Amino acid sequence: MHPMAGHFISEHYVFNPDQETYSYYGPLNLLTWHVGFHNEHHDFPRIPGNKLHKVKEIAPEFYDDLACYKSWSQVIYMYIMDRSVGPFTRMKRKPRKSE
After folding, report:
1. 23 near 35, Cβ under 8 Å?
2. Separation of alpha carbons 80 and 5, rounded Å
3. Higher per-residue pLDDT: 91 or 66
4. Distance CA 9, CA 86 (A)
5. pTM
6. 6-63 pLDDT, tens per residue?
7. Are 15 and 81 in contact (CB under 8 A)?
8. Least buried of 14, 23, 31, 56, by fewest C-beta within 10 Å?
9. What's the main place this protein lives (predicted)?
């Protein structure tokens, strides 16, 4: 499997049940137009991908304490080896109750 395929897994598969999505801060962001800055993208979806790294630079207090990945290859390995993670462990939001 190609390491960049790990971005799909890293974005929405649940490795930490307390966090909805994850960012990747490794060097492959240079080849993928910073697609790894996924938390930043969710917070500011209209900022172009090549500028998302600046969001983290400007507001580290919002992103530095979140779980993140530094290797998409590691994410693929974890996905294969961790028996608690699989095709049905994608993050799903619970529907809001009617008010």
Report:
1. no
2. 13
3. 66
4. 10
5. 0.79
6. 888 888 787 877 888 889 999 988 888 888 999 999 999 999 999 999 999 999 999 9
7. no
8. 31
9. membrane
